[in-house]
Amino acid sequence: MKKVLGFGLAMLFALPLVAAAEQASGTIKAVDRANSAIVLEDGTRLTIDEGRLAGLREGEKVQATYITQGGKNMVTDLDVRTVVGGIDSSNLGGPASYFDSKNVQASE
Fold first, then answer.
1. How much is the pLDDT for 51?
2. Where do runs of H (alpha helix) occur along the chain?
3. Which of 1, 75, 79, 102 is the most exposed place for a label (fewest CB within 10 A)?
């Protein structure tokens, strides 16, 4: 019974943290290196650590997960999108999934 109660309390505290994360996607309109931030075309301003900011350029498509902290949108995860042959891809590889049906072979 104590394990169930403990698990329930852990989930109760963890859920608000997950729910607080938001997502934004779009094309980078401006890179503000002085304030470690990017501004998307829709005006969304995202604060990002300098290590990730170094490789970003205006015109790139991004998808970001962020939390609001101290009035700033702090990026927790960033996916840089590129267009390859008219298909969006990400910084995780090419446009096809790693588990594409061509790559998965049935075992007998």
1. 85
2. 2-19, 50-53
3. 1
**How many Å apart are CA 86 and CA 44, to the nearest integer?**
25
Contacts of 76 (CB under 8 A, 6+ apart): 21, 65, 66, 67
Q: The domain containing residue 50 runs over which residues?
A: 18-89
10 Å Cβ neighbour count for 57? Answer: 9
- Residue 51 falls within a domain, yes or no? yes
Domain CATH number, residue 25? 2.40.50.320
Give 16-60 pLDDT, tens digit per residue: 554 468 999 999 999 999 999 999 999 999 999 888 888 899 999
Is 88 exposed, middle or buried, given 0-12, 13-18 or 19+ CB atoms closer than 10 A? exposed
The residue among 86, 90, 85, 33 whose CA lies nearest residue 57 is 33
Of the candidates 57, 81, 54, 30, which has an alpha carbon nearest to the alpha carbon of residue 46? Answer: 30
Location of structure tokens 């301003």: 45
Range 80-103 average pLDDT: 54
